[in-house]
Amino acid sequence: MSEPTLYGGPATRRVRTRDLIAAKQRGERWPMLTSYDQYTAGIFDEAGIPVLLVGDSAANNVFGYETTVPVTVDDLLPLVRAVVRATKRTLVVADLPFGSYEEGPTQALRTAVRFMKEGGAHAVKLEGGRRVAEQIAAITGAGIPVMAHVGFTPQSEHAIGGYRVQGRGDAAEDVVADAHAVAEAGAFAVVLEMVTSEVAKRITHDLPIPTVGIGAGPDTDAQVLVWQDMAGLRTGKGPRFVKRYADLAGVLTDATKRFADEVRGGEFPGPEHAFH
Ligand SMILES: Nc1nc(=O)c2c([nH]1)NC[C@@H]1CN(c3ccc(C(=O)N[C@@H](CCC(=O)O)C(=O)O)cc3)CN21
Ligand SMILES: CC(C)C(=O)C(=O)O
Ligand SMILES: [Mg+2]
Question: What are the structural domains of the chain?
């Protein structure tokens, strides 16, 4: 039997981190999305998304905060549980929120263990390169797969000074060094956020582990988007790296207006919606 692809095949078992490494070796690209709830997780699982991220971007896209800074482990754990329960074959990655791993390897491992034990996650993700190599080593050393995240790291937005492309000019070597450091520390994949296409291509070529791009050009092994950006549920001007594949905000607005009109006009509920 030929090697199964990551998506399009029958839902026989969950995707594992080794499947993602194997996909890179055969040059197979894969899509990743965020998910924070049961219904979207089920749809993405059925549609063949091999990896879902319960992102700390829930801060912006579920809880309505301006940045990812305020969201907590206790906020995210129930979302992770919902996404795991709703999926059959997707590998579910839990994002470690700001403040839950920076103190050092002990704190990082304690938080990762909570997401595995209480959340049922299959892997965790954290932001940073060389500065969190010890944390990555401690977590992977305990048998928990880690996805790393370098380039623009939203949790450090205040230090970085806004949403800025990373790795231009001399800064390229910093991003490259971070990517190498997380791979050496044991990460099974690395998100490259808002780095130049040239730097992303070089890192993807250099590293044995898959790279997951967001605003990192066409040459990474995988691509991730926040699902509300991908499906057009979020309105307003988004980051330039977003492509909208639907107008969910428009669909939901129309449905809501029709419901409201029918209630006001006495058309809903009809006889078929009532009990006698
Ligand atoms: N809905 C959503 N999508 C995301 O991609 C996302 C979140 N939320 N929350 C957490 C972080 C924050 N991210 C962001 C947010 C904004 C820009 C942005 O506004 N970028 C502009 C300006 C760039 C500039 O000023 O140089 C762009 O044009 O890309 C980028 C990444 C990525 N993540
Ligand atoms: C966009 C991805 C990579 C992320 O970290 C998040 O959604 O929290
Ligand atoms: Mg995140």
Answer: 17-245 (3.20.20.60)
In this structure, are residues 230 and 248 in contact, taking their beta carbons and an 8 Å threshold?
Answer: no
How many CA atoms, within 13 angstroms, populate the side-chain half-sphere of residue 200? 28
What atom in ligand 1 is closest to the CA of residue 234?
Answer: 1
Residue 250 phi/psi, 5-degree rounding, is -65, -45
Give residue 2's pLDDT.
Answer: 45
The answer on whether 74 is annotated among ligand-binding residues is: no
Catalytic hit among 118, 134, 193, 272: 193
Q: Are 141 and 186 in contact (CB under 8 A)?
A: yes
Closest C-alpha among 53, 83, 54, 55 to residue 67? 55
Residue 254 tokens, joined: 């129309």
Task: Say whether pTM exceeds 0.80.
Answer: yes
pLDDT digits (tens, 9 = 90+) for 18-73: 999 999 999 999 999 999 999 999 999 999 999 999 999 999 999 999 999 999 99
Is residue 3 packed enough to be buried (19+ CB in 10 Å), middle (13-18) or exposed (0-12)? exposed
Has the ipTM of the complex gone over 0.90?
A: yes
For residue range 236-269, list pLDDT tens digits in order: 888 999 999 999 999 999 999 999 999 999 999 9
**Rounded CA separation 137/140 (Å):** 5
* Atom 10 of ligand 1, nearest CA residue: 57
